[in-house]
Amino acid sequence: MTSFSVQAPRAVVMIRPHHFHPNPETEQDNVFQTRDGTRTISEIATQAHAEVTRAAEALEQVGVKVHLFEDETKETPDSVFPNNWFSTHAGGHIAIYPMFSPNRRRERRGDVIEMLKHAYRVQDVIDYSGLEQDGLSLEGTGAMVLDHISRIAYAAKSNRTNEVAMERFCTHFNFEPIVFDAADEAGRLIYHTNVLMCVGTSFAMISLETISNLHRRQEVRNRLTENGREIIDLSFNQINDFAGNALELSGSQGRVLALSRRALKALRPEQIRIIERSATLLPLDVPTIELAGGSVRCMMAGVHLTPRF
């Protein structure tokens, strides 16, 4: 459909959980998190395992390489969201991040990093996790939405996004930080930036109304459109259905936008038409995973590294 873009990786890392459940340590500041009283914990875990399996298969079918790891422990209920603890970058760079919740810090895995070193050209790994000792958090590409084309890191302020840690990351990885206040319709801070926005190659999906400061809102709009992107402005209701939690990827037939089926149902026809001008929609069924307050984008850590072979 379209040529490869540095914004849209060809491969992702995913974690298949065996004991998934919404994390009680994160529900206080994650208003997207919900409880399911109709199923047992075991039933929820079994369904989450199946949803990740089917999602990985669907990605592979469109030509996206999936590095699928198993999580068989009971201590990491949010391990299905690996994009929060590491990210990869062109030129062979990896970042490892400080996490807000103590039980999420256990998600970091040496075997994932070693696989990346073996399969891809990795020059260095910069580990920011020591900042946890100072009470600083920066939860990866959940906290930041990265524009790899314009080298901008967008971030909504929250206790998952410390500005000192972000400045350090941006200095090391050559991104310009753009930080803003963002809240839901009840005035509650939005815990992760990737819930309210997605930056693709030719379009950007963002809930501009979450940014209360009108000057900052216009500045964010201007920066997103300065290289010709079209804006898809999402409503509060649409982000509540995870419409902003999507990831553009490069498949064998061109770019695809991976998002949940719930998110796709929330989009209006004219918004879908904008996306389909440059990417094929790939809806994935992940309703059980969404109980934890994240969706498809959170489930995938994009690999922006050069393969060794």
UniProtKB/TrEMBL annotation:
Q: Which PANTHER family match?
A: AMIDINOTRANSFERASE
Originating organism: Gluconobacter cadivus
- Please name the InterPro entries in this protein's record: Amdntrnsf_FN0238 (IPR014541)
**Protein's name according to its UniProt entry:** Amidinotransferase
